[in-house]
Design goal:
4 strands; single chain; four-stranded mixed sheet; alpha+beta
Amino acid sequence: MRAPPQKDTDMSIEEFIANEVKSNDVVLFMKGTPQFPQCGFSGQVVQILDHIGVGYKGLNVLESAELRNGIKEYSNWPTIPQLYVKGEFIGGCDIVREMFQAGELQQLFTEKGVAVAA
């Protein structure tokens, strides 16, 4: 996984986030990694995505205060985790969990053309 850009590069944190969101179908900004979530909320979203069987990129906001603060500004959403699908901000843990329980999350992936496991 590529580290977030440092201050001396040409790419700002906003550009880095925008690039990640646009170049990956499903992106989860989370505390920890998909293999080792560092908070319960991030862990719940990882479990849901893994259960659905959708491929996604996890970005650990704990590795960079700049990324942690930048993603909150980018989405205008105060909490982590944050899920993006095809460049669209979906929500945090509660929204993702509610959508999953209602069958709406699976439907969203299908509508957006994101492959899920049967």
